[in-house]
Specification:
Layout lengths: L2 H21 L6 H9 L5 E5 L1 H16 L4 E3 L2 H5 L11 E5 L6 H12 L4 E5 L5 H5 L2 E4 L15 H21 L3 H7 L4 H7 L2 H4 L7 E3 L4 H11 L3 E5 L5 E6 H8 L15 E2 L3 E2 L6 H10 L4 E5 L5 E6 H6 L4
Parallel strand pairs: 1-2, 1-3, 3-4, 4-5, 6-7, 10-11
Antiparallel strand pairs: 7-8, 8-9, 11-12
Helix pairs in contact: 1-7, 2-7, 3-7, 8-9
Length: 321
């Protein structure tokens, strides 16, 4: 049995159904559905049972994360108290491939009793769900990918895709930008990139700081205790003058006249890379670190006094990319 061939067949069948839907998009009432949702003052309540319910939950999640207030409500739960979750300003998106799912059909009269607009996704415009609806979106397919042509496969793929169609259309209509998306995903990569600032990750306490006159042997101890692989060097006015990295130390060891009794400033890097804006995005700080191939970015005030340091490891651990 060639499973690769079976996999190709499944993908081809489902792709064919999506392509067919794309060619017939004019018949899907997409514009009316988008306008209805766009002008909704409440939430989009997505409901369905079985596989349709699972797809509906994903559609509701996609709506919610792309600027359309939405949640999934199981029809059975609605009939046992949760109907009160649907408000007069809401819209219901009902999903049932047959259009005759018993649990969903039982809910419909109560939805219409409150004059709640209903968008229906089903395969038959003459189904009970479709007849109750204000807007009907046909999700019929010519063939399921299931070899028995029974298990929801192509049909659930198309249903999911139509949910994406509505979500993306609404994003375009609202001019929904990546900053908006990130605000709904503050813990995701994009959210961190757009919202986490240098000050959120800045190390300010117990920094490895020594004076210019400190001997190298003592600076090495401070470097080890600081666990940053660097020592910050200041003058008598607490102004940053230089930095000693473990790389500087290794290079100095190669000099024949090296002595641990010398002052640390003799082998340190003068005028290290610094920034003064602690509210700079952490993602922009990472660009500076990568551009100058450094591990430590120092934040100073207008007087060149050290406020804190940002280590590349802190950025990595925070998921800044």
């Amino acid at each position: 049995m060639d499973f690769n061939e079976i996999a190709k067949e499944v993908l081809d069948i489902e792709a064919k159904e999506l392509n067919l839907a794309s060619k017939n998009i004019d018949s899907f009432n997409i514009k009316d559905a988008v306008e209805l949702i766009y002008n909704c003052k409440g939430k989009v309540i997505v409901t369905g049972v079985g596989k349709s319910g699972l797809i509906g939950a994903k559609i509701a999640a996609t709506f919610a994360s792309t600027g359309t207030s939405s949640f999934f409500l199981h029809p059975t739960e609605a009939m046992h108290g949760d109907l009160g979750m649907i408000g007069k300003d809401d819209i219901v998106l009902g999903i049932s491939y047959s259009g005759e799912s018993e649990e969903l059909i039982q809910l419909l009269p109560h939805i219409k009793r409150f004059d709640i607009p209903l968008i229906a996704m089903a395969k038959n415009e003459n189904s009970t769900l479709a007849k109750y609806s204000d807007i009907f979106i046909n999700i019929s397919v010519t063939k399921e990918a299931c070899p028995l042509d029974a298990a929801p496969t192509s049909s659930t793929t198309l249903t999911l895709a139509m949910g994406d169609v509505l979500a993306v259309c609404l994003m375009r209509k609202r001019d929904f930008k990546k900053e908006d998306f990130a605000s709904f995903h503050p813990g995701g990569t994009l959210g961190k990139k757009l919202f986490v600032k240098v000050d959120d990750l800045l190390r300010k306490e117990n920094l490895p700081i020594v004076s210019r006159e400190t001997k190298i042997k003592d600076a090495i101890v401070t470097m080890s205790e600081g666990r940053l692989g660097n020592v910050l060097i200041i003058d008598e006015k607490n102004h940053l003058t230089s930095i000693l990295s473990d790389g500087d130390l290794r290079r100095a060891l190669m000099n024949p006249d090296f002595s641990i009794e010398k002052s640390v400033e003799e082998i340190a890097t003068k005028n290290p890379r610094t920034i003064k804006d602690k509210n700079l995005l952490a993602s922009d700080a990472l660009k500076i670190i990568e551009e100058y191939k450094i591990q430590l970015l120092i934040v100073t005030n207008e007087n060149n006094e050290i406020i804190g340091v940002l280590h590349i490891h802190d950025l990595i651990e925070a998921g800044i990319k």
